[in-house]
Specification:
Length: 267
């Protein structure tokens, strides 16, 4: 029987986007039916495999996308979101393969499910791009998500603090306005896809918050203070309002964590 870690590594080493999607879905099915052992004998790669396109640029060199009013702007926005979802597949399987031994099997239940969601999100966005005359890889993208993974590769608490509780939570803040702009432009199909992703991401942030708090309790650490310390140490972006308080609250991410944050990083 294959181990869970080996299945996660296979996802990370799949370069072609649809091979990665198929591998992720197969791993999720195998885990659900009990065909993978809860064992972690296989290391995760330092970096996941990537296709030849899109070209990965530093964030400072990324072209401006616009705000989604024009079709070109909407295409650029959907491409950027497809890239985020593609990278999120690897993040979900990496957190299981890299840190799963520190948690009960329910941790894998949650994050393998997240990975399957991210694979579905990528497919929805890529199909929409193709319907608009484009495709994933047609535009450049940046590697910020995996940079966050590299920064937190040695600490499960740091990974949970930064990836779901900062980066994915930021998606909860900005997505409703993006949906509204797509609707205003008459692009209801894209808006519906983004609405579906938004609802799923609330659950993903909830999983991150839950397991962060559980591990803090196990280690007898105060969660809010530890989150602030870890974000200040490992996150180099800006954490500032506006915040979607209702969505964050639904995800279990109370204002105790992020209230009053309006500076570069968290110090």
């Amino acid at each position: 029987m294959t181990t869970l870690a080996a299945a996660c590594r296979a996802v990370l080493l799949a370069a072609d986007p649809y091979t990665k999607v198929r591998t992720a879905r197969a791993a999720a099915r195998a885990w659900r039916r009990g065909a993978l052992t809860h064992a972690f004998d296989t290391p995760m790669p330092d970096r996941p495999a990537r296709p030849a396109a899109p070209e990965l640029l530093p964030a400072s060199r990324m072209p401006k996308r616009g705000r989604g009013g024009s079709e070109r702007g909407r295409t650029a926005m959907l491409h950027a979101l497809a890239h985020i979802e593609f990278g999120a597949i690897d993040l979900a399987f990496d957190i299981v393969g890299r840190f799963g031994a520190q948690f009960p099997p329910a941790f894998a239940d949650d994050w393998i499910g997240v990975g399957a969601d991210e694979a579905m999100h990528f497919v929805l966005l890529d199909r929409r791009l193709k319907g608009m005359g484009s495709f994933y890889g047609a535009l450049p993208a940046h590697d910020g998500l995996w940079e966050a993974a590299e920064e937190t590769a040695g600490d499960a608490l740091a990974r949970l603090a930064v990836v779901p509780m900062v980066l994915e939570a930021r998606g909860l803040d900005v997505t409703p306005a993006t949906v509204a702009r797509f609707e205003a432009a008459g692009d209801l199909r894209s808006a519906a896809i983004l609405g579906r992703i938004y609802r799923d991401e609330i659950r993903h942030v909830r999983a991150g918050t839950k397991w962060f708090q559980d591990l803090c309790e196990t280690r007898r650490i105060a969660p809010v203070a530890e989150w602030k310390r870890l974000v200040g140490t490992h996150f180099r972006g800006a954490i500032k309002p506006p915040f979607n308080d209702s969505a964050r609250d639904e995800a279990g991410l109370s204002r105790e964590f992020y209230g009053g944050v309006d500076v570069e990083g968290y110090v």
